[in-house]
Design a protein that fits this description.
Layout lengths: L1 H23 L2 E21 L5 E7 L3 E10 L3 E9 L14 E7 L2 E9 L1 H4 L15 H4 L9 E9 L6 E8 L14 E10 L2 E10 L8 E13 L2 E12 L7 E13 L3 E12 L6 E13 L2 E12 L23 E12 L1
Antiparallel strand pairs: 1-2, 1-3, 1-17, 3-4, 4-5, 5-6, 6-7, 7-8, 8-9, 9-10, 10-11, 11-12, 12-13, 13-14, 14-15, 15-16, 16-17
Length: about 350
């Protein structure tokens, strides 16, 4: 009942907003279209501690996108179509990543489509190894207790900034092309962010109904970044996940990290250490990653990372399972290690 009331309220608010602003808006010539993308490739030595020890080439969340906007007197309309492009295998499908349309104005931003949930985006302040060997999602995005996802058939409202704070509220109404009769497969994702001077914080909550593909579950997340000095950023992270069907997936993930600028805006040394404390016996895991990155320009960077996951007897996680094309499996009770040399080119 709560979710239905929430949806009705959201749709009514959206309708009022659209009608009010559309009445006053006039089309201008201020339009913008852009083709953009990312080629992110790495060569990795991956060892699961058991019977797998090989060198792989991997494409890591590489993408191609199209986006545009048109400015009116009272609001801006915008769209984005983005797809994954696997540069290493000639793979990819159309509109597989964040794809949406919406409007923004003094009231904030409203969009509809498929996109990263506010909960997923909330890891940002502590995200040191995104899309690389050592990514924190190797501990936070496990099995059916996955929360770093894109919401389908979703409506997302982002408030204007109130000082240093901003609210995000998203409702994924259903999975697939149409909602099944009486299905409880919706999801709600919220976040509250705070950015002021050296402090960057994100607090998020996400929940899914019992008929969702991966089952009924909810989680909270807190990520923090603090610019302690001009060349030193400290980060912290906490997540608690509760799966209502499979309690072997209930776990808390927490840890700390640091990013040190060896050369201002050019060369960085970074590391993080995270622990996955599972409720079930012998399913804990620990992730450690350290790496160096050199930025030739904001569009081109090279990096080298070393990362490992130490598993309890019933855990088989790796530091390379997320956002990559090369994802060999782990081995229960073993320590999985990866060495990665990569290039990321944004265009």
């Amino acid at each position: 009942m709560f979710k239905r009331k929430y949806l009705v309220t959201a749709v009514a608010a959206a309708a009022c907003t659209f009608s009010t602003l559309a009445a006053a808006a006039e089309v201008t010539s201020r339009s913008d279209m852009q083709i953009y993308g990312r080629a992110h490739l790495s060569v990795d030595s991956l060892n699961n501690g058991d019977d797998y020890n090989e060198i792989n080439v991997s494409s890591n969340s590489s993408r191609l996108g199209f986006k545009g906007k048109t400015e009116f007197d009272a609001l801006t309309a915008f769209f984005q179509i983005e797809q994954q492009i696997d540069f290493d295998t000639n793979g990819g499908e159309f509109a597989t990543r964040d794809t949406f349309a919406g409007v923004r104005g003094d009231f904030g931003m409203l969009r509809v489509g498929k996109f990263d949930t506010p909960f997923k985006a909330a890891r940002g302040p502590a995200n040191l190894f995104g899309d690389q060997v050592g990514d924190m999602r190797n501990l936070t995005r496990v099995g059916n207790a996955r929360f770093d996802e894109r919401g389908e058939n979703a409506i997302h409202y982002q408030s204007p900034k109130f000082g240093a704070m901003q609210l995000n509220l998203a409702y994924a109404h259903h999975q697939g092309d149409e909602k099944a009769s009486d299905a409880k497969d919706s999801g709600i994702s919220t976040s509250l962010t705070y950015q002021d001077g050296p402090l960057d914080l994100a607090l998020a909550y996400e929940t899914y109904g019992k008929d969702h593909t991966r089952g009924e579950r909810n989680a909270i997340r807190l990520a923090a970044g603090f610019q302690a000095m001009d060349n030193l950023k400290l980060v912290g992270f906490y997540q608690s996940a509760d799966h209502k069907v499979d309690d072997t997936l209930d776990a808390k993930v927490y840890g700390v990290g640091a990013d040190f600028a060896i050369t201002p805006r050019k060369t960085f040394l970074r590391a993080h250490y995270l622990m996955r404390n599972a409720d079930a016996d012998d399913r804990d895991a620990k992730l450690f990653a350290i790496g160096v990155e050199h930025r030739v320009d904001s569009a081109l960077r090279f990096y080298a990372n070393v990362a490992q996951v130490s598993n309890d007897d019933n855990a088989a996680l790796t530091p390379w399972s997320q956002a990559r094309t090369a994802t060999p499996g782990g081995a229960a009770g073993e320590t999985a290690r990866g060495i990665s040399v990569g290039m990321r080119y944004d265009f």
